Inverse folding.
């Protein structure tokens, strides 16, 4: 299939690479072209403009950081979109914005899905992402074979915006589970235990989680190299907070994690992985 891919960052590049390896033909674009050129070695054609990337594409994927980036991308490609094309936004952005974009493109005869992902860089590389999809069900069925190349769990959630709402729920659970893992390991270390052995022991029981097993070892090692940036989880939680307010919800755990990730950013960790929240925890748990 002829595919356009816009956004080749820490998640987008390995996802695009999986489609190339599956035999699809890709034209790729990234705001910083050097990041797109790394895919040329895998057979991608690098476009200098988004509209050039989408020409003749049956499916157009978008994987960019934030709501304004998606809106700006759509604005740039909209004049070149043709009826029958399928646009799949895999970014994590505002559900309200996705619904508006879907309605706007439907007037052109263009199908639009919001299909955010969970699983981090390792999931993008291994094709094990969880993908939650909103939009018209026939468009989802059309996209499903492509999504199966990228993810292990692909779930149709309902109308436009439903994929994003699901991803925001995911980010609440991810954030609080990560904080629980960091606190458990800090508690173990303070109590004179070997945190690696604690991780092995509790990870096999009811405390086990993706965050504990994947990020726990990095917390123990002080390895804050990013699989998912602190700055992006902060953005996601801002979206969660806005959606919660719209629905009249007050979520104390969400407020805590907004505070914790903001504290991590203040310590210089915005471009580190989310596991760097453990450093913020140390600053609270062991005040000088």
């Amino acid at each position: 299939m002829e595919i356009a891919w816009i956004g080749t960052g820490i998640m987008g590049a390995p996802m695009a690479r999986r489609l190339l390896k599956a035999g699809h033909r890709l034209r790729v674009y990234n705001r910083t072209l050097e990041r797109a050129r790394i895919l040329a070695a895998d057979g991608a054609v690098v476009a200098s403009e988004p509209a050039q990337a989408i020409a003749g594409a049956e499916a157009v994927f978008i994987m960019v950081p934030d709501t304004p980036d998606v809106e700006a991308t759509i604005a740039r490609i909209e004049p070149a979109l043709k009826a029958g094309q399928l646009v799949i936004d895999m970014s994590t952005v505002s559900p309200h914005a996705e619904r508006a974009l879907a309605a706007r493109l439907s007037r052109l005869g263009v199908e639009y899905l919001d299909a955010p992902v969970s699983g981090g860089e390792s999931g993008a590389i291994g094709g094990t992402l969880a993908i939650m999809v909103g939009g018209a069900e026939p468009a989802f069925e059309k996209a499903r074979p492509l999504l199966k190349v990228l993810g292990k769990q692909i779930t149709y959630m309902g109308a436009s915006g439903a994929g994003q709402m699901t991803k925001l729920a995911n980010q609440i659970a991810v954030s609080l589970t990560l904080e629980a893992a960091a606190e458990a390991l800090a508690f173990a270390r303070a109590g004179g235990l070997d945190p690696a052995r604690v991780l092995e022991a509790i990870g096999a029981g009811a405390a086990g989680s993706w965050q504990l097993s994947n990020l726990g070892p990095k917390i123990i090692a002080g390895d804050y190299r990013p699989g998912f940036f602190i700055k992006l989880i902060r953005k996601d939680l801002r979206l969660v907070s806005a959606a919660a307010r719209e629905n009249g919800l007050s979520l104390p755990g969400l407020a805590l994690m907004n505070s914790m990730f903001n504290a991590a950013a203040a310590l210089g960790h915005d471009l580190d992985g989310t596991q760097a929240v453990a450093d913020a925890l140390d600053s609270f748990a062991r005040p000088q």
